[in-house]
Amino acid sequence: PDDTAAAAARDRDAQLTKPPGALGRLEELAEWYIGWRGDPAARCNSPQILIFAGNHGVTAQGVSAFPAEVTAQMVANFRAGGAAINQLARLAGATLDIHALSLDTPTADFTTGHAMSEADYVAALATGWGAVSPEADLVVTGEMGIGNTTSAAALAAALFGGDAGSWAGRGTGVGDDGLSIKRRVVEAGVSLHGQQGPLGLLQCLGGRELAAMAGAIAGARAHRIPVILDGFICSAAAASLEQAVPGALDHTVAGHLSAEAGHGQILDALGKIPLLQLGMRLGEGSGAALAIQILRGALACHQDMATFAEAGVSDG
Amino acid sequence: PDDTAAAAARDRDAQLTKPPGALGRLEELAEWYIGWRGDPAARCNSPQILIFAGNHGVTAQGVSAFPAEVTAQMVANFRAGGAAINQLARLAGATLDIHALSLDTPTADFTTGHAMSEADYVAALATGWGAVSPEADLVVTGEMGIGNTTSAAALAAALFGGDAGSWAGRGTGVGDDGLSIKRRVVEAGVSLHGQQGPLGLLQCLGGRELAAMAGAIAGARAHRIPVILDGFICSAAAASLEQAVPGALDHTVAGHLSAEAGHGQILDALGKIPLLQLGMRLGEGSGAALAIQILRGALACHQDMATFAEAGVSDG
To answer: Is B286 on the interface with A (CB under 8 A)?
Structure first.
């Protein structure tokens, strides 16, 4: 970040017509955003929401409440404007770009081999990196992929340790039998690939949409575009970047705390306090898209409030 | 609320292209709003933010970090468009109405008598009731008044009991000496007026802006207009209605959890879970105004998402 711009933001904040600190996290959000944009006058006028979709070999084991065909059906729904993220993108004035990643060729079952070949993995990372518009001033990374909470749980378990099975949650609403299978699948994946480094784990246990989100987060950094992270799956993918290069997520904030088991643990480990806690667990970038409004509020106050001197208000 | 409209909202929610419950609190917000509007197609297009300003006799005792003149200065700032709430109102597409209540005549010091005469009190309640536009489809009640966290702390202490002094917080940022005075003032007020009923406490310990917020909340109910409550002062005023008539706040939600000491205790007592928790403590309706966006997101998803049948998506 640009320390001069961030310092200018702090200086301006101290002059605005409010008691010091009275806007709480809105004040730190404005400073964070301005620092990364390197512009004291920065506003968030052109947010870009990126959704990556992928399919997962492990779904054949019965880890999800929904059939794998739903990934492609939901991509069609995104393109037709019918999903939750379409409504939230419109509310936020954000562009919404959908990238379906080889849906007809699911990743390999990670309990028996690498989820992605090196070529597949690099292609997915590059799709994410290239999906970021250099003109965007904020990026939200979201996903769709039946089975991908299983992939994310295995990735988080391998990155952070602890009881592997306990990272498995209900996802879209899997029943007790499916949850038992899911736990065993996660344990088997960690057992097979757990010795990999963070970026190897993303290849072996992740999916194309997870790799693409990681690529987009890194690509946004190269353009100094701040990122709002979404829920469990996005955060697991992002965590592999942070473990590989500490500080790699400094240009990101956590948009919300998902109801999916394990998300809070990931955010704690990353030292990120979520902006929203609304019990959402949909994916699609939905929680992060809603959090765009919080950032907009922070910047509107920061850029447009009067100072004590301008307004003739006594500053205590 | 209209049970038929709320049931229609639940029925529609179950058909939308998402796993059941995956939008978390957005789903209950949409149902709550639709139930109170009595219209399954309800949207929040015309929110109205009401700010009431008043002055307080207890400020002469040194309970605030800012001089009493700041109330009138901030009213001028609201009218000129320079305060935080102006920016947040614009972001939310809300109208903003400012009502300054006899600023040149502070309430009486509640440690020696009733803060308001009966005539003053009724006039403030009526100002609030009459300020609600029947055409609004959402109301946010906010306030400005140097010294009013002292008034709200005394009111909350008298309504909810416990160690009276512990309800006093830092407000706009009072120092240790001021906080000690504030505690003694709150204790003295509760000692003098604590035997009053809830609406008597609002008269004896409140201020004109607190009474006006209570009047507006009640007036909105008469028009079936849902209300988003703001922080500590707004919630204390609202609590006097709920204690007088249980259920009187059913048409309200808590917009945010303020950083001001005591707000969480009030919300717990009211059974309200705040939509936002961002460490804000500004008043002016600012937290509630930001929460309008959450409600808007909930309604956008509810009203505009495709159903499983419309989108051709398998529902699991």
So the answer is: yes
Tell me the shortest Cα–Cα distance from A258 to chain B, in angstroms.
Answer: 9
For chain B, where are the E strands, in sequence order? 47-53, 95-100, 138-144, 227-229, 252-254
> Could A300 and B90 be called an inter-chain contact, meaning their C-beta atoms sit closer than 8 Å?
yes
Sheet architecture: strand order including B252-254: B95-100, B47-53, B138-144, B227-229, B252-254
> DSSP letter at B101?
-
Question: A247 exposed, middle or buried (CB, 10 Å; 0-12, 13-18, 19+)?
Answer: exposed
pLDDT over 90 at A315, yes or no = no
Hey, are the CB atoms on B172 and A316 less than 8 Å from each other? yes
Q: Give pLDDT tens digits for A76-95.
A: 999 999 999 999 999 999 99
Say if A293 is an interface residue toward chain B (CB within 8 Å).
Answer: yes
**Could you read off the pLDDT of A113-165 as tens digits, one per residue?**
999 999 999 999 999 999 999 999 999 999 999 999 999 999 999 999 999 98
**Cα A70 from Cα B307, distance rounded (Å):** 14
CB pairs under 8 A between A and B: 187
> Does the CB of B310 have a partner CB in chain A at under 8 Å?
yes
Reported ipTM exceeds the 0.90 cut: yes
Which residue in B288, B83, B92, B284 sits closest to A304, CA to CA? B83
Annotated active-site residue A284? The verdict is: yes
Residue of A135, A242, A284, A310 marked active site: A284
Distance from CA of A282 to the nearest CA of B (A): 5
Tokens of A316: 């205590």
Establish if A246 touches chain B: CB-CB under 8 angstroms.
Answer: no
**Residue B62 dihedral angles phi and psi, to the nearest 5°:** 85, 45
Interface contact B280-A310, CB threshold 8 A: no
CB of A41 within 8 Å of any CB in chain B? no
* Residues whose CB is less than 8 angstroms from the CB of residue B233 and which lie 6 or more positions away in sequence, other chains included: B143, B145, B148, B149, B151, B152, B209, B210, B213, B283
A24 contacts in chain B (CB < 8 Å)? 259, 278-281
Cα gap B230→B228, rounded to integer Å = 7
Positions of E strands within A105-214: 138-144
Domains recognised in chain B with CATH numbers: 3-41+302-311 (1.10.1610.10), 47-296 (3.40.50.10210)
- Which strand (E) or helix (H) includes residue A150? helix A148-160
When the pLDDT of each residue in chain B is averaged and rounded to a whole number, the result is 97
From residue B189, how far is each of A34, A139, B59, B160, B162 by CA, in Å?
A: 46, 52, 13, 14, 14
